[in-house]
């Protein structure tokens, strides 16, 4: 596999990000203050964390539809466990989600079956579980533990404990992908599955790991966001996957897997959130925002398609050049 | 030549056992239902089950063409159905005649389907494409309706939505007709055979000179057409349309296709499988409702059934492939 393809250039995405921020700063003076940077990071803390996990699954060439339901179940568990302390109520849902992801990934890797439909089924099952464990109503944090809400949302400059956790997880996962053998295996299995398997990489381990990380991130995000808001609904987070996927695709992850970096993903998600925050700062209604996100995703897909055609043309040109050179050298030989 | 080709793989060798086991599972639900839930096997309840299956079933028949042609599934039929329903209701409430309103739905669904088909035919991932299309359509619908419910009551519309011939509701009749028609199109026409060949072996289809872009487009257009039909039925049955309807149609259609045993690798199964899958799920849900299971447990069991079915048919296919 070409190393170049993993490191897609960051520059166009930095430019896109700056463009979005500049446009909204000009349109709305309220947009350019530390308060809105803080609110961008607060939104990023949740959506970014889900997108991180989803990004890793997409690097492995798969898709996990169940992230929203995992976050919903973890959110309800976190509220129910909060009486045992904030650490327990964050760690246990995350570990449960991680184990679930490990099982899901193991099934998909072991049987080599399609991840989308299997995770659709599991997503429905988990959504049902969320309704069952919550007794079909929203779970609310008990009044005597209300200080947890302030703790998670405590403002430290432009950060909160929530966004610091997300950024630490991002750095950790970035290092894991870059430096560890497991990270390399995830890229390899996504880039060319049959080549990776014939090179001796287990077809199960990287996929199980990617799904475990994905569900773990979604679980952590769901637990933290419900502790932050003090309540959790079993119907929550149904559309988080759409936001996360849009962020991941703006980050210029190849749709077919094997490419993408955590830095790029960070930029992609931040760009998306700056866009939605900017739109709400102009008091544009939520449904037009959703329309804008959908259109943006279509745009990203068309650009990806065109760039693929461009790449294909380059390949054809190279082949022609090579053929020409070959013809030139042949008579000499 | 093509017309003489043997019946589709539904009747062939090693998969037969698989279908027998699925059929046994269905019979088991019916028997348990008959023993535990009162009125489960009454004519009224059976009609209720098939009517409940018809919305999902019609869409699943359409989407099965996408699946059989090897392009996986669509995650935008729900939003297509919603926008069709809303456009129909808007047109009718502005005094358009019924044929004009139906024509509008036809144009919208063909446009939406061929656009997605075009993207996928040019190498885009169908999941991401349909997800994006769904989000755009959903946003568009909420903008044009301003998130309000649109009322439409008319005599002609009333007949489409609530009418019945020989005591069988129109939706049910349409569902059965569409399932049979789709089965015949897939197995007895040139384009149908092209869909099966493309799904079972892309390389062979390409080297045989099939118009593969056309095949992909056909799958997507048929599925959005089915979504349009369902949208019109809903708007006319309830005399209103809003963005909130069909909340789980995408998942239900996928569930029907998977549980019916249409292979996600493409090339295996027929629209009839998808239709039977829809009936299977409707029966299961009806039974769970009659014995009074809470909502959470019901969707949990449905979800597990999908995961189980996809695993089961996947293993079955692999065994069939190894032989």
Describe the protein's topology.
The complex is a heterodimer of chains A (333) and B (323).
Chain A: H1 11-27, H2 34-59, H3 67-81, H4 86-111, H5 115-134, E1 139-140, H6 147-152, H7 161-179, H8 181-191, H9 193-198, H10 205-229, E2 231-232, H11 240-250, H12 262-281, H13 286-332
Antiparallel strand pairs in A: 1-2
Helix pairs in contact in A: 1-12, 2-7, 2-8, 2-10, 2-11, 2-12, 3-4, 3-5, 3-10, 4-10, 7-8, 8-10, 11-12, 11-13
Chain B: H1 15-36, H2 43-71, H3 77-93, H4 98-121, H5 126-145, E1 150-151, H6 155-162, E2 164-165, E3 168-169, H7 170-188, H8 190-200, H9 202-207, H10 212-238, E4 240-241, H11 249-259, H12 271-290, H13 295-322
Antiparallel strand pairs in B: 1-4, 2-3
Helix pairs in contact in B: 1-12, 2-7, 2-8, 2-10, 2-11, 2-12, 3-4, 3-5, 3-10, 4-5, 4-10, 6-10, 7-8, 8-10, 11-12
Provide key terms for this protein.
heterodimer, A: 333 residues, mainly alpha, two-stranded antiparallel sheet, globular, disordered N terminus, disordered C terminus, B: 323 residues, two-stranded antiparallel ribbon, 4 strands, 2% strand
Word description of this protein:
The complex is a heterodimer of chains A (333) and B (323). With 333 residues, chain A is mostly helical. Chain A has 13 helices and two strands; from the N terminus they run H-H-H-H-H-E-H-H-H-H-H-E-H-H-H. A two-stranded antiparallel ribbon of chain A has the order 1-2. Chain B is built from 13 helices and four strands. A two-stranded antiparallel sheet of chain B has the order 1-4. A two-stranded antiparallel ribbon of chain B has the order 2-3. In chain B, strand 2 (164-165) and strand 3 form a beta hairpin. The model of chain B is unreliable at 1-13 (pLDDT under 50). The chains are: A mainly alpha (333), B mainly alpha (323). Chains A and B meet through helix 5, helix 11 and helix 13 of A and helix 5, helix 11 and helix 13 of B.
């Amino acid at each position: 596999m070409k190393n170049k393809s993993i490191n897609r250039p960051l520059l166009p995405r930095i430019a896109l990000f700056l463009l979005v921020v500049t446009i909204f700063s000009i349109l709305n003076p309220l947009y350019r203050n530390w308060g809105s940077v803080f609110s961008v990071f607060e939104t990023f803390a949740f959506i970014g964390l889900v997108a991180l996990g989803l990004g890793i699954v997409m690097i492995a060439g798969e898709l996990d539809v169940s992230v929203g339901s995992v976050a919903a179940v973890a959110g309800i568990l976190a509220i129910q466990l909060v009486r045992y302390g904030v650490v327990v109520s964050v760690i246990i849902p995350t570990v449960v989600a991680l184990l679930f992801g490990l099982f899901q990934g193991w099934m998909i890797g072991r049987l080599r079956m399609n991840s989308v439909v299997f995770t659709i089924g599991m997503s429905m099952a988990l959504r049902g579980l969320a309704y069952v464990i919550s007794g079909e109503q929203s779970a609310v944090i008990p009044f005597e533990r209300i200080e947890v809400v302030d703790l998670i949302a405590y403002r430290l400059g432009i950060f909160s404990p929530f966004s610091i956790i997300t950024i630490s997880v991002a750095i950790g996962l970035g290092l894991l992908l870059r430096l560890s053998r497991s990270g390399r295996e995830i890229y390899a299995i996504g880039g060319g599955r049959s080549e990776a398997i014939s090179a001796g990489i287990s077809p199960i381990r990287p996929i199980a790991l990617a799904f475990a990380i994905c569900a773990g991130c979604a679980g952590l995000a769901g637990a933290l966001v419900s502790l932050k808001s003090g309540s959790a609904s079993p119907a929550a987070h149904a559309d988080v996957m759409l936001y996360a996927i849009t962020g991941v695709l703006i980050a210029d992850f190849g749709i077919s897997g094997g490419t993408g970096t955590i830095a790029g993903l960070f930029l992609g998600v931040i760009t998306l959130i700056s866009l939605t925050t900017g739109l709400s700062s102009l008091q544009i209604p939520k449904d037009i925002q959703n329309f804008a996100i959908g259109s943006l995703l279509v745009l990203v897909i068309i650009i990806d398609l065109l760039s693929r055609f461009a790449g294909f043309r380059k390949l054809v040109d190279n082949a022609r050049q090579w053929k020409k050179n070959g013809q030139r050298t042949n008579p000499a030989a | 030549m093509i017309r003489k080709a043997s019946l589709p793989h539904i009747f062939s060798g090693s998969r037969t056992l698989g279908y027998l086991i699925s059929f046994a599972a269905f019979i088991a639900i019916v028997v348990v239902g008959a023993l535990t839930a009162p009125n489960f096997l009454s004519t009224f309840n059976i009609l209720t089950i098939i009517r409940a299956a018809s919305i999902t079933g019609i869409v699943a028949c359409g989407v099965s063409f996408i699946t059989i042609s090897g392009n996986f599934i669509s995650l935008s039929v729900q939003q297509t159905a919603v926008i069709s329903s809303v456009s129909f209701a808007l047109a009718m409430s502005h005094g358009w005649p019924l044929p004009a309103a139906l024509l509008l739905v036809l144009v919208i669904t063909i446009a939406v389907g061929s656009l997605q088909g075009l993207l996928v035919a040019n190498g885009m991932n169908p999941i991401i494409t349909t997800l994006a299309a769904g989000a755009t359509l959903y946003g568009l619908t909420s903008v044009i309706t301003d998130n309000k419910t649109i009322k439409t009551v008319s005599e002609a519309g009333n007949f489409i939505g609530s009418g019945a011939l020989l005591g069988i509701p129109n939706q049910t009749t349409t569902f059965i007709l569409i399932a049979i028609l789709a089965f015949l199109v897939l197995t007895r026409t040139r384009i149908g055979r092209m869909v099966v060949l493309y799904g079972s072996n892309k390389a062979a289809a390409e080297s045989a000179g099939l118009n593969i872009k056309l095949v992909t487009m056909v799958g997507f257009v048929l599925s959005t057409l089915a979504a349009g039909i369902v949208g019109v039925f809903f708007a006319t049955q309830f005399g209103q349309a809003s963005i909130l309807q069909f909340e789980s149609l995408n998942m239900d259609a996928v569930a029907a296709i998977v549980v019916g045993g249409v292979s996600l690798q493409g090339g295996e199964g027929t629209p009839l499988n998808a239709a039977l899958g829809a009936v299977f799920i409707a029966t299961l849900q009806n039974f769970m409702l009659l014995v009074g299971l809470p909502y959470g447990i019901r969707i949990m069991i449905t979800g597990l059934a999908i995961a189980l079915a996809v695993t089961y048919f996947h293993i079955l296919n692999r065994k069939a492939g190894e032989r």
